[in-house]
Amino acid sequence: MDKIKLSNVDDKIWLAYKTNMVFYSSEFYTPDECNEIKVISNKRGVNFYSYGVFKDAERKMVAFSAEEEKKLFYPLELLKIKANTKFLNLKHRDFLGSIMALGIKREKLGDLILKNDCCYLPVAKDMVDFIKYNLQYINKSPCKISLLDIINDEIPQYSFEERVIITTSNRLDSMVSSLCNVSRSKSIEWIEMGNILIDYVPVCKKDYRVKANSVITVRGYGKYRIGDILGYTQKDRIKIEIKKFI
Question: H or E element: which one contains 94?
């Protein structure tokens, strides 16, 4: 985590410790960042909480309290963005790119779930009005924005395509090759170009060892959650369960 982010989080942890009040982030954090923040919070003796609206959410807001909290009110809203198109098959990158083109930082946005030409997106509360008034198109398709009631409305969940891959090892180049059904040389090329992310952080080392529960993002191909090793083939190749985000 960069120094500015770390400083902002550390200030909130310290204030929670000193005042016995609850303090929230106004940004969303990736899994590796949440783990780092949790360690800092625990060292201070402050309770750490996180929330991303969706079950299995990757990006989450965080909260801190010196006392155990039963009810938390995170400063976020859940947007439903409906694109009026019959001809374009809009992807995550179309929605995310259109929103970030407004000058909004990625940290202000949670995970995106697409269902039936609609994008469901948790957003920091201080960005909601700006997005509502300025986001008019998704890839040239007109869109409408509404707010969902997180407590009472039906919240969409991730869909996964579950399958098993067979790979020679848990090295990153081997894993990417098996995930995307490309040659090892092609996977190394992608890694060296910075097109492979582990838990949302670019990794450029082909011999990086991928751990269970990691999320691999292959730009242009998709996002995958790595599961457990299921066993080995007769040629000692590894069988690993994976979930591809749909």
Answer: helix 92-100
